[in-house]
Each structure stands twice: as structure tokens, then as C-alpha cells.
Amino acid sequence: MYSWITSLQGRLTLGFALVLALSIASVSVYSAYATRIETERFTEEIELARAGRAEQLVRDTFEANQDWNEVQYAIQQVGNLYGWRVVLEDESGLIVADSHQVVRDAQGLFETLSERFARPTRFTRRPVYVNSQLIGHLLVDERPARNERPLSMRDFFTSSLEQFFVDQTSGQLAPPRPTQIPVQAPSQTTSDLVAEVLEYVDPPLSNLQSSFQRSLLIAGIASGLAGLLIVTIFTRQALAPIRGLTAAASRLGTGDLSQRVPESGSDDIGELAITFNAMASDLEVARERSRQLTADVAHELRTPLTNIQGYLEAIKDGVVDADGETIETLHSQTIHLANLVEDLRIVAITDAGPLALSKSFDSPVRVIEDAVLNFAQRARERSIDLSITKTDTVPIIEFDETRLRQIVTNLIENALIHTPKDGRVTVDISGSSNGMVMSVSDTGAGISIDDLPRIFDQFYRADPSRNRVTGGAGLGLTIVKRLVEAHGGTVSVASSPGDGTTFTVALPGREGFPRQKSACL
Prior knowledge:
- By secondary structure, this protein is α+β, with helices and mostly antiparallel strands.
- It contains 14 helices and 13 strands.
- The strands form 3 sheets. Strands 7, 8, 9, 10, 11, 12 and 13 form a 7-stranded mixed beta sheet that branches.
- α2 (8-65) runs antiparallel to α3 and α3 packs parallel to α5 (188-198).
- The radius of gyration is 58 Å and the shape is rod-shaped.
């Protein structure tokens, strides 16, 4: 889990998730805030409009009738329509109209605001003018108590049978006793004014919807811009190493193989930086080897060509006779040159890709014995004991006969070159269920620890003072390694100074081992 979080993918994912969360949160907070503000503003707008209409209704009704009873009816309609507690006091401070309670008792007396209400501050006050003259104040409580009910006309005129009483003198139903000062029914003018003013429709909710949508649009744009800025900063910081890698790769492509990038962190970019540096190092080493290879090839080819050219010019000038010895020398130099060219060709083929092999299943003993037998005379001339040993069972393996013969030839050639007179070279062949193992051991001077890691490099010689004609071109062991690996096998070397050297080749095989007997040359 931690490795995913620290990876480039994880960091980008978390960064975008954070930006998304911040954007959604900011939009939600701003939308809630804007909605609350717009709702309060819309509500205040509606209430101001209603209060203005109520004030207009009171002013028009009083102006048309000059009667507070008509105004009482208008105030009642406002209270019933809006659910407000509406009170009108005249310029002297007496309550002359109330939407929820009669304004005069049975004696026709008025009350003041402080006499009627324990908390007069509950009302908002609006002055009412008629012809620029103050006639009173309109008092509005937009949230009246739950037990307060607006008045209706039946509250002024009782008409139900239950409200009649029996006269004790006559025993007949008597007219109801007035509980309050009765008022007359509103005039037609007052009714028309009420209908005209209160028929005004409040601002539609579409205004609130439009405002809310506008708020969402503004919040969305702002959040998008903020998110874009955060993502830009985040990705710029996260991808800075990649831009460095791009610049280094561009310079590397122009031939500057010394380019390296900082290796920081263990995430994907850190691993990419490590891989890039390793690639650059490999390319630098490969270029150096290529230069060295070119120089080595030129040197190796120049030596036999110079010899051949010298002899031919001497014959042409008559300095040297074209006798048998001279021709033999030219022939040996030509063969050496041909062998060198063939070795270079094999190395070039293996460098270009997998080497094409003509494989067949067979026992490798015969091929190995034939290849070793070709060196028997040369070994006897130098008093070197060249022998072959093998186990009773040598496996059947799949191999290319020509290439196996070349492997054995190069190993024997190398062993004879580095084995002194009266020394010993031993070829051992053994087998197991995993395949064939062949080792070539000599009693030469051995190889130092410093030279062992490079023993299979092209043109490398552990003894640089050795003559190239007698010591070879330094390609034999390189070719052995390439051919063994082409067969799917491995080659290794074990040596120490003064104890000789042993090269071991392991080739994969299959079950079914023919029995063979030991032999000695």
C-alpha cells in the first residue's frame, strides 16, 4: 500500500482526489451560504413588499372613508392573508385597529400599545401618511404567538342559536347581548380596495431558483479555476524529475554519454532515474569498448597484413627469393589472417542477435575426441600430456557439431598456448540428468584474480606481452562463451596463479545415456 501511495500514479491520484474533494466542499459551502443569504434576502424582499402593500391599504382605506371601522376590516384581511399580527395606532398613540383583537371594550374605550401588550417591542413600526399628514403608525409582528387568531366578521356579530338566551320575564328567546362594540359591514369601496391591493402576487420562487443557479455557476467556475491552479502546481512539482530526465535523454541522444540525473526516492521516478543512469553508464562503456574494438581489430589485421606486404615487396625487389620457406611463411600469415577474419565474423554475428545453429541429438563424445585428436601431434612436439577422460555414461544432447568442435578447438588452443613444456592438458567429459559437463584443465601459470572477470572479453589477454601470432588475437574465449550460450549452456573458469586453469562447459541434454569407455591419447 505504501509503495502505491509513493508511486507517481498514487501521488497523482491522491492529488486529483484532493482537488476534487476541495472543489466539491467549496462548492457545497458556498452554495449553502449563498442559498441562505439569498433566501433571507428573498424573504426580506417579500415581507417588505407585503408591509408596503399593507401600509398602502391602510392609507387608501382611511383616505376613501375617513373611518377607523373601515380600516379595521382592512387590517383583519391583512392578518388573515399573511398570518401577521397587525396593529394600527393613531397619532395620539391609541390602538384604532387590530387584526387579532377588538380595539374597544363595551364602553367604547381605546387602549394604548403598552396597555394591551406586555412586550410592545415585538412590533416593527411604519408611519402612515395621508396627503402628507401623519395619521398613525402601522405595527407589524410577522411571527405572532400560536394562541393568537386573526379576527373575522363573526367575531363582531354573534348569529348562532347557542348565543341567544331566554328572557326570565317573558320566557322567550331574547336578542343576544353584545360582548363588544359592533361594527358595520365594510363598504363596497373598502372591499374593492382590499381586493385590489391584496391581489398582488409575491415574487415567484423562480427568482430564488435563478439566484441559486447563478451562485452554483459562480462557485463552480471559481472551484474549477482553483482546482486547475492546484493541479498545475502539483503536477509541475511531481513531474519536475521527468522534465530533467527528458532534458538529459535529449543531451544523451546528441552523444553526451556523461549525462546523469539525481537518484532520489524509491518511487517510479526514482527507479526510472536509476535505470536511466545505468543505461547511460552502459552506453558509455559500450562506446569505449567499441572504440577499443576498432583499435584492436585494426591492430590485429595490420600485423599479418604488414608481414605479407613486407615479404611480397622483398620478393618484388629481389631481396628475398620466392622459395618454399618464404611461400610457407606467406601461407601461414594468410591462414592466420583468415582465421582472424572468421573469428571477427562469428563475434559480429553473435552481437547482431541469436546465432543460428544446426542442431541434432547425438552423443558429443565423438566430436570432442576428434577435435582433441587434431592437437595430438602439436602436444607431443612440446612434450605436453594431452588426454581425455569420461564417465561410463555421457548423455545425449542437442548440439551443433561444427560449433561444438569450434568450442573444443578454442579451449585446447588456449590451454596449449599457456601450458609450458612437459606440462599436462586434460579434457574431462561427464554427464548427469541435467546434461553434459566438459572441463579443460592445464598446468600453466594460471590467471590472476584481477584478470578473471575479463577473461571472456574481446581481445583481452591476461599476458599482454605474448606475441599475437603465437598467443592468438584474444577472441577465442569470447567465441567460446558466445557459442556455449547459443546452445543454452554456461561456461566458467577457475584459476589461481601457479595452479593452472580449468574451463568448464555445461550443455543441457535429455535422458538416455549411451555407455562410453575411458580413452587416453
